[in-house]
Design a protein that fits this description.
Layout lengths: L1 H13 L38 H4 L3 H13 L1 H22 L4 E7 L2 E3 L11 E3 L2 E10 L4 H67 L5 H35 L30 H4 L1 H22 L4 E16 L4 E17 L7 H67 L5 H35 L9
Antiparallel strand pairs: 1-4, 2-3, 3-5, 4-5, 5-6
């Protein structure tokens, strides 16, 4: 008995051993600054990605749309179910580290009809109940590694949800900015149409009075038609944008309430992009890739543990009784009890290389996860650099477009004055107004593109996933 207890104690002590590599975060050659940015002299540099989304998007109506989307959007809700599934899988993996105890009850009954030998019971009843114990002793840490992998899988699904959240916030913001852009384009088109209709009536009066030609009337009509045909197309695009936003909000297509005009959407603080190394902790896709790498690393230990003896402890305890009826009365014998416990050892000897191949497969999957982790970091850096360039150049283009629009507004004013004074024909007015209309629409698009570039930079820096207040 003492020897058995001693052996069991040794086995339990050995259960603390774990085969397979322990995870260490791999090195990656991170640049000190993003390309195109000035060097940053200290390590605690604030980043635009550190700001919460409601600090970036200050339109109250846009904030309400984002909050609704975070609750009702189907992609977010589906991501939550993935987390629940991963939590259950972790519980299943952890349960293998603990003993399993089952209860069972059997009540067999038999009856004999017809002739019987003297003393043979006519009826028998033998109820028995018991407990079965099974416990796999985790000598080589196989079960611990499996739990480690399941826990990493759970954390990866949590990060996957944050990826969905980040994408959703940026998509809602971009769709809202595009909708406000179309609203402004529609306003410009209607204002331009009204102005050109007034000009057409003026030209028609001049033509009636002999001060203008029929060609001037036709050219004025061209301007009116050009502005008029823009309106239904813009209204179509507005309806499609509202439908998209409605779906993002988890609703059927419907009207979308508006807030601030396009030019008042962002009050962007003067915050730099920050240090590239902070992306490792801020970007959910990088964190997800690292958790997937941790899981793959742990599964190497699961595969290697199969090369060593597997020891399990099994036991059972039962109690029962036997009853018999010879025809006149029942006789019961018992109760009787039975108890037994002992270890079982399984050691693989020959399996045609299956276990070794399993180890090689796990190591290959770990290498794949490592490369994907490094690739994700590289792609994140590229997205930030692209977004910095996009924002900088979109801003420069918007400034120049504002200058061009002001110049064309002055040119239209001068051409109208020259035409009213009889100095020039209506063709000059036609050309200047056509250029102004195009420039005004291009300016609105430039303003929207600049806002979208800010959203893309914010997302690339890993911002937007923080929970709302």
């Amino acid at each position: 008995m003492k020897v058995g207890v001693l052996k069991l104690s040794v086995l339990l002590l050995l259960a603390g051993c774990r085969v397979g590599p322990d995870y260490q975060r791999p090195d990656y050659p991170m640049p000190s600054t993003f390309r195109g940015e000035a060097p940053q002299g200290h390590t605690d540099v604030m980043s635009l990605g550190d700001l919460s989304w409601w600090q970036i998007f200050q339109d109250e109506q846009l904030q309400e749309l984002i909050r609704t989307a975070l609750i009702e959007n189907y992609d977010v809700r589906i991501a939550v179910t993935h987390i629940l599934d991963a939590q259950a899988q972790l519980t299943i993996a952890r349960s293998a580290q603990f003993p399993s105890l089952d209860a069972n009850v059997n009540i067999p009954y038999s009856r004999t009809e017809g002739a019987r030998a003297l003393g043979t019971p006519k009826e028998t009843l033998a109820p028995v109940g018991g407990l079965n114990l099974s416990f796999e002793i985790d000598l080589w840490g196989q079960l611990q590694r499996a739990t480690e992998a399941a826990r990493a899988d759970l954390l990866a699904t949590v990060e996957a949800r944050w990826i969905v959240v980040t994408t959703l916030i940026s998509t809602v913001a971009i769709a809202y900015f595009q909708l406000r852009e179309l609203d402004l384009e529609l306003e410009i088109a209607r204002r331009t149409l009204a102005s050109r209709q007034d000009s057409l009536r003026l030209v028609q009066r001049r033509e009636t009075g002999g001060l203008a030609s029929l060609l001037d009337v036709r050219q004025a009509e061209i301007l009116v038609t050009t502005a008029a045909q823009t309106i239904p197309d813009t209204e179509r695009r507005i309806a499609l944008a509202e439908n998209l936003l409605s779906i993002l909000l988890g609703r059927n297509p419907s009207d979308v309430p508006r807030g601030r005009p396009l030019a008042q959407q962002l009050a962007l603080p003067a915050v730099p992009a920050g240090l590239p190394t902070t992306l490792l902790e801020r970007r959910p896709d990088i964190r997800q890739a690292e958790q997937q790498l941790i899981a793959a690393n742990a599964r190497i230990g699961v595969a290697k543990a199969l090369l060593f003896p597997q020891v399990s402890l099994t036991g059972s305890a039962s109690i029962g009784a036997t009853g018999s009826n010879t025809g006149s009365f029942w006789t019961f014998l018992g109760p009787t009890g039975l108890f037994g416990i002992g270890p079982a050892v399984t050691w693989p000897i020959f399996n045609a290389g299956r276990i070794v191949a399993g180890v090689a497969s796990a190591e290959a999957r770990e290498q794949e996860a490592l490369l994907r982790y490094q690739q994700t970091i590289q792609q994140a850096i590229r997205e930030v650099v692209d977004a910095l360039v996009e924002y900088s150049k979109r801003q420069e283009f918007r400034v120049q477009q504002e200058v061009l629009t002001r110049t064309l507004q002055d040119a239209v004013r001068l051409s109208r004055s020259r035409y009213a004074g009889g100095v020039t024909g209506y063709l000059e007015v036609l050309d200047s107004e056509r250029q102004l209309f195009t420039a005004e629409l291009d300016l609105v698009q430039a303003q929207a593109n600049e806002l979208i570039a800010v959203v893309q930079l914010y997302k690339a820096l890993g911002g937007g996933w923080q929970p709302a207040e």
